[in-house]
Amino acid sequence: MLDAKAERATNLRTADWYKSATRWTQLTLAEDDPVKFDPAFWIDVFKRTKSNAACLSAGGYIAYYPSKVQYHYVSKFIGDTDPFGTLVDGARRLGMHVMARVDPHAIHQDAADAHPEWIAVDKEGNKRRHWAFPEVWVTCAYGDYNQKFMPQVLEEIARDYDIDAIFANRWQGHGVCYCDSCRTRFKAASGFDLPLVSDAEDPAWLAWSAWRRQVLSKLVVEWDEVVKAVKPHASFIPNMGSVSLTEFDLSLIEKHCPFLVVDDQGRRGTESIWMSGRNGKRMRATFRERPAILITSIGPEEEHRWKDSVTTGPEIEAWITNGAAHGMLPWFTKFNGVVPDERWVEPVADAFALHAALEPVLNATVPTAEIALLDPATTLRHHGYETRHKAEADDLGFYRALIEAKLPFELVSDQAMTADMLDTFKVIVVANAPCLSDAQCRMLSDYVARGGSLVVAGETATRTEDNEPRNGLGLGELLGARLAAPVRGPVKNTYVALDGDHPINAGFGGAARIIGGTRLIGVEAAGDAATPFLYVPDFPDLPMEEVYVRGEPTAAAVIAREHTGGGRTVYIPWNIGAIFKDVLAADHQRLMENAVRWALARPSAVEVAGKSVLDVAWRRGRDGDAVILFNLTNPMMMKGPIREVFPVGRQTVSIAVPEGKRFAGARLLVADREAKAEVADGRVVVEVPGIDLLEVAHIAWA
What range(s) does the GLMA-like second domain occupy (predicted)? Predict the structure, then answer.
């Protein structure tokens, strides 16, 4: 097998170049950098971080090379220098891959005067000044600026510089543009006027979302063709957010984008570090084999936009490392080539070095799991930025509940699922997917008929793929549930009562009831189904003297069913995931974990025990398995930045011996030593004495 350096040399300037581009440095230059920054410092950073690829500012809003394209603004500080070319040459001398960065989201006054049609227009009909720098103008992403002007820039860069790809930032536009071109073309394509608000119930909004998806997907193809016409081995690579796969034609992305770049640079507000690794699962949910890269900022990612700042070292390392634990290739970005604060360099170098050390095992294994959480892309594609986070709240709640259970799991996109893909899992969790097609419902039903299990919650399959109300529950027959009353809410002070003795309501101590949800669906259970929980009839939350139960629990609040094919289904007809995300009630975590474990019908193939909060990943190879343990145990896990790592003590990893294999040894890869292990009852139990940020138990089979 070739070592990484030899493989990179072999792949330089070939169509497979990206396969050895596994650690990225991005430098986004400021306009005055040509006279202020030190290129030699950055060449040294490439080496210190073991980066084998670089993404470097080239053009778009500002060119950092002597561009000849008319109206392509060149930095007024450039003089007779070529900062972009200097950095490209330095990276190539180190044997690195190189990608040029362009940003087409704004133009200067000369271009605006010559081409006013390039400027985006707001709903009041005003041309859009840049919200942060009003001296320049925001471009329309859906018209001639991107379709006619930017291809000239891409062609020039690809022709004049030794690059492997061109990467575009902020190329998708900033919401609806109301320019004459967009109005005319959208009306002709859809028959609607442009929508004035982001509303998943509005037919015009749904039509605009579909039209935008078509325009942007076509743009990816056209820009890729421009680059390939000059350099056949190269590609155009669009920057994406963690939900961007809902915004494009997936077949075109699959054909034209050999790898995916996710621009989710850090956590915001009360997000947890595990949001980083979720990006990796989400990319695999659609493209199982495609490399995915996670961009990490060295500064805090908050709405106040301190873009040229440095956050704590542990925060940087945690975000990079959690992404890597779930298959994301690391990429860090620095805004401004001048470095007044170097505290980020060592943490980035340490995180990249850890990735480099684990890379041989990561390359020899693939992510695996028995449990998958459905990514409801069919629903999310109907939502804009303002409503999307609310639309995936249930998924975030279930995601956290599975992490707290220390269960390894993957994601599966409802847009990309196939029978073969579903059959790789024992349990599919559908936290809340209101929009599902009849074909998608049949696919899930057939999965259960073949022996798979489902855990379903919320308003799943109550609407069609086009967001039209469905008459009844699309999965009702499968789940043993009949719609008795439509969803209602928000409601307050609701409860669900334990009913009988069932594994799903085990472990609640002396509780007769637990808190319920705020969006409730009335359902009746089939005769062959169990109801581990029942709705407690509503009662007031004020005046306090009126806060008492008026009737006995009767209606099904959880329905559990065993199927003849061996599969099991659980239906929770309320928003348990979203409530858990907001309230973090321990009872809700237990209920979700119990439901998944009952659906699994036997102990998980990988079980982790110990006093800790761990994000667990499981990878399988021909000769061994790797169980990755990322330590989330930190007082700052829900609000950053993490200021230091809090190690945890002894943990055990129990893994089922694969059929036809026998245990051949275990090693702790980060500690770099043999691990104590015992074999009993068809399982190997590996002892992990302690974990700082990350440990990997590598179990070899013979």
Answer: 397-465
First and final CA of the chain: distance in angstroms? 21
Burial class (CB in 10 A: 0-12, 13-18, 19+), 652: middle
Calculate the alpha carbon distances from 131 to 99, 116, 135, 307, 385 in Å. 28, 18, 10, 16, 17
pLDDT tens digits, 581-632: 999 999 999 999 999 999 999 999 999 999 999 999 999 999 999 999 999 9
| Structural domains in the chain, sorted by start | 371-600 (3.40.50.880), 606-701 (2.60.40.1180)
Q: What is the DSSP string of 319-362?
A: HHHHHHHTTPEEEEEEESS--S--TTHHHHHHHHHHHHHHHHHH
Distances (CA, A) of 495 to 377, 457, 537: 31, 16, 8
Nearest-angstrom CA–CA distance, 213 and 1: 42
What is the rounded CA–CA span in Å between residue 564 and residue 457? 22
Q: How far apart are CA 163 and CA 102, in angstroms?
A: 13
Amino acid at 275: M
- Predicted TM-score (pTM) of this structure: 0.94
Find where tokens 């053009």 sit: 59
In angstroms, the CA 42 to CA 38 distance is 7
Owner of token pair 């469905």: 470
